[in-house]
Design brief:
170 residues; alpha+beta; Chemotaxis protein chec; 2 domains; two-stranded antiparallel ribbon; 24% strand; globular
Length: 170
Amino acid sequence: MGQMAEVEAAVAAATAPERARFCFEYTNGVDAKSRVVMPASFRAPFEGGGLLTVWQGRCLAAMPRPEWDAYVDGMVLALGASHEEHPDEVLRELWRSTMEIKLDIQGRLALDAAVRASVGIGSEVRFVGFGRRVELWPAAVTAEQQADRDDRRATVSLLQGSYDVPRQQG
């Protein structure tokens, strides 16, 4: 890479908008008009709207527009490199299961009843920050799901310990 290209890359990196980093978990109720309040800490990246899609058939995923665009670009590249015979049909299915979202002045998000039902969301929504997206899950956690979460928490604890070891020895 030439010096000018390095400078251009550095300028682009310095001026690029910071990507959202969603974390933590919140539970909010769904009102009679199928609206739910987006947690305040998640709202700012959605000021310009966003998209909501079924995610792996298990939950809903909300992404701000720039993140959605990056996601779709990645999917198009992956489909282009794959042996998928009908990439347009895959993309059509993605868009078919996606809806645009806009928060109202009170930070509420309208959730279509059919979309909620497709992943089992009833009268409460569990918002889970997952880095670049916000996942919307049914609020109730089964005993099996809690056991899985406990196992994953133990794995996180082990990985956190490995993070500290080199720093303590140095």
